[in-house]
Amino acid sequence: xxxxxxxxxxxxxxxxxxxxxxxxxxxxxxxxxxxxxxxxxxxxxxxxxxxxxxxxxxxxxxxxxxxxxxxxxxxxxxxxxxxxxxxxxxxxxxxxxxxxxxxxxxxxxxxxxxxxxxxxxxxxxxxxxxxxxxxxxxxxxxxxxxxxxxxxxxxxxxxxxxxxxxxxxxxxxxxxxxxxxxxxxxxxxxxxxxxxxxxxxxxxxxxxxxxxxxxxxxxxxxxxxxxxxxxxxxxxxxxxxxxxxxxxxxxxxxxxxxxxxxxxxxxxxxxxxxxxxxxxxxxxxxxxxxxxxxxxxxxxxxxxxxxxxxxxxxxxxxxxxxxxxxxxxxxxxxxxxxxxxxxxxxxxxxxxxxxxxxxxxxxxxxxxxxxxxxxxxxxxxxxxxxxxxxxxxxxxxxxxxxxxxxxxxxxxxxxxxxxxxxxxxxxxxxxxxxxxxxxxxxxxxxxxxxxxxxxxxxxx
Length: 460
What we know:
Radius of gyration: 36 Å
Strand order of the largest sheet: 9-8-12-13-14-11-15
Largest sheet: 7 strands, mixed
Helix content: 40-55%
């Protein structure tokens, strides 16, 4: 009895002691956490924890659902599939009606008039757009990023690539492949019905310009036999891949069109591309910011069957043969001769394409550029001859089926009179064409006013 009572007394004493020790702490706890401000802060903190937990749970659930109920395709330039899908998207009304958009004005080669330029309205980068394909919802996002490990161009700008991410909300994995195949078919049909031109930029990307109707090679006015020889040579090359492979010869063909400005060099290339149904990839070597590495990226990313055009070859750099600095053409690019030679026939150079180069001053070109194997065919463009003037006149005023024989004879006589009034080798074809544009439906007036116009044009 005595031991149990002593134990009980001990416990009572300890309890009293501990209570008295905790009393200040409990009082402080009640005073702090009993404050309305602290209580509200705790409630907000608990709500934040709850919301973050719910977000994590919902995010995890969405990833699980998305992995089962969605299909995603990633496309990057300059892959051809990127071009197919971009062309398909631009034909969709909702794609070009975004409230946040990027404006692009592709221009044709050498076009100075912007009144007829086609304006493209593309959704801004990293702004997802919602479309439908055969009833399936699509989420499409366009982005642009620098290439990992890429160099910066001479202008200090990093090489960049565009990409598309397309997510289809469907259980079927065949929706996006069907879309890409449909885009490919539409793109190829457009390419066959219209001439497609791509322009290089200083980032190493190819920009598709507005396509244009095909042009017949017969519409280009050149000296007799030049068009036929050029087309036959190009067609033979395209048909001879096995011949080149059997002999271990690099499957390349180069053409240099040089001479008088406005004599039809670019028109010849576009008409030949139309005849052969090839796309044209244009690099202006005087482009600001262009350097050897960017040029190499551009040339290696072209398809195997196309026309690669180097414009204004003489504008990039002059011959090493000793032209004075005053005779050299200024250039904004940093392309070197060795870089251009590697792009034409280096180890990584593309095969199977037709390489064209244009120059107004062929004598300024380095001999290493024009040797066989790099430039195989050279065609000089001069001022118009009288035979070219007569052909141009006949094309401006073609014979009508309703014409009588007498009217037909008069039309031929007018063409001969026009040609006789044109001084041999002093005016370009573009100058004569510009004059005839003033008299679209008035051939007699064109002949009558020719002498006075030539006197003003030549300053005589």
